[in-house]
Each structure stands twice: as structure tokens, then as C-alpha cells.
Structure prediction request, 68 residues.
Amino acid sequence: MKPNVGTIDKIIRIALAALVAILYFTNVISGTLGIVLLVLAAVFVLTSLVSFCPIWAVFGINTGKKKQ
Prediction:
């Protein structure tokens, strides 16, 4: 796996995951939608930690540093 997630992308993913977690645990979002968003938030954190996003790889997107 070649890293394809850059620093700004990681920050955005973690911030969104934190926002979803806060909204879920304060009962702003709940039910099935809340669980789906919580799972998506966990995926965001995981992809941030490993610096690889399979969806970005499929579409050929790389938000990391470019080698010159």
C-alpha cells in the first residue's frame, strides 16, 4: 500500500470523525443513521492512521506530497 492521504486530508478526516462522535454521543444524531455515520467516522480515523484510502486508490487520487 502506497500512502495516498496527505496531512490536510488527515486533519479533515479526523475532525469530521470527532464531530460525528460528538453529535452521536450527545444524541443529536441517533438510530440507524447515527450508527452508519459512527462506522464511517471510524473508517475515517483508520484511513488517517494508515495514510491509505482505498477509494482514493481506485480513482487515482493522491493528496500526499508529490515526488519531483
